[in-house]
Design a protein that fits this description.
It comes from Marivita lacus. This protein has about 325 residues and is an alpha/beta fold. It has two domains: about 10-120 and about 255-325, 3-Layer(aba) Sandwich (D-Maltodextrin-Binding Protein, domain 2); about 120-250, D-Maltodextrin-Binding Protein, domain 2 (3-Layer(aba) Sandwich), CATH 3.40.190.10. About 30% of the residues lie in helices and about 20% in strands. The protein contains ten helices and eleven strands. The strands form two sheets. Strands 4, 5, 6, 7, 8, 9, 10 and 11 form an eight-stranded mixed β-sheet that branches. A three-stranded mixed β-sheet has the order 1-3-2.
Length: about 325
């Protein structure tokens, strides 16, 4: 098992430890890295935020690493190339079943659930000048950016578009890059699956006029019947472009840990993140859903023993032994 800081890591150094963790630190790493997603996406901003909080609270230097998103994070955390990462329930289920495209046929069962993050809404954005105001307006053969290859968006949004009868030319890239391509007329639409507000969308609406396209009730029902998602409304205050909530669908995100990490270390990491929601929200607004009561949104991954103990002791969680790694 190797826990290394990769090239390009944004390091959050813990220069002072303001508290002493009354725990046996045997086996704790000297530093840690969190696998996130592309720059301009919610994963990177959110992951940098909780890495900083953990570093400050535990006195262990840490940072966020740019990755390909949930599928790659499952692979990196499973192998131990990264100690921590973030994923969504759909890619987690596929990875555990051995259907992760990074390593087909390999059940990734050594990546454990750590704490609930937030729901990922699936939303569509186009320039106002395009005239696209609904899914049915998307022209035949439209150039659609689906985010980084292997991300939650790239895994599920193309299937959703096909389900809704959209014929498209599929494009991939980081959210910031795709936002620039949309503004330059190289893309017709971006299909985002990321916690709101998505930084790339916020940047776009400052620079130009955009349409945030909601699903109709019929489209929403069709998608929830076909995919592991639930109804969701993007709040009107998420973007200045919105004047009312936008109808969407969403999938839950969870932070994950390599299952072999020390129980005491993971317990304290979870404690640092979950004990002060206001501090988390200050790092990213998507953290408004990073609350202990949402522990039960994980129905896919086994829990890390340290995380299971924290939620049992502090959130009244009833996690069966069959859902705890090594239990």
């Amino acid at each position: 098992m190797k826990f290394t800081t990769l090239t390009g890591t944004v390091v959050v150094a813990a220069f002072t430890a303001t508290m002493s963790v009354a725990q046996d630190r045997a086996g704790w790493p000297d530093s840690f890295t969190v696998g996130t997603g592309s720059q301009g996406g919610t994963y990177f901003g959110y992951g940098s935020g909780w890495a900083g909080i953990v570093a400050d609270e535990l006195g262990v230097s840490g940072g966020a690493e740019v990755t390909g998103g949930p599928m790659q994070n499952m692979a990196l955390v499973h192998t131990g190339d990264l100690p921590f990462g973030m994923t969504t329930m759909g890619p987690a289920a596929e990875s555990i079943a051995g259907s992760n495209p990074i390593a087909p046929g390999l059940p990734m069962t050594n990546a454990c659930a750590m704490f609930p993050m937030y729901q990922t809404p699936f939303s569509v954005t186009a320039l106002s000048s395009s005239g696209i105001t609904s899914i049915s307006d998307i022209p035949d053969g439209a150039r659609i950016g689906f985010g980084p290859a292997g991300s939650t968006s790239d895994t599920y949004f193309p299937r959703m578009m096909e389900e809704l009868g959209v014929n498209f030319d599929r494009r991939n890239g980081g959210w910031s890059d795709l936002g620039g391509q949309l503004q330059d007329g190289l893309l017709d639409v971006i299909a985002f699956a990321a916690g709101v507000p998505v930084p790339a969308v916020s940047q776009l609406e400052v620079q130009t006029d955009i349409n945030i396209i909601e699903f109709t009730e019929e489209e929403q029902a069709q998608i929830t019947a076909a995919f592991p998602v639930a109804n969701f409304d993007i709040s009107a205050d998420a973007y200045t472009t919105l004047e009312a909530p936008a109808r969407s669908v969403s999938m839950w995100n969870f932070a994950i840990a390599n299952c072999d990490l020390p129980e005491t270390f993971v317990y304290e990491v979870v404690n640092a993140v979950m004990s002060d929601n206001e501090r988390m929200v200050n790092t990213h607004r998507a953290a408004r859903s990073t609350l202990p009561e949402f522990w039960d949104r994980n129905t896919v991954m086994k829990w890390h023993p340290g995380a299971a103990r924290w939620f049992t002791e502090n959130a009244g969680a009833s996690i069966g032994a069959d859902m705890i790694h090594g239990g």
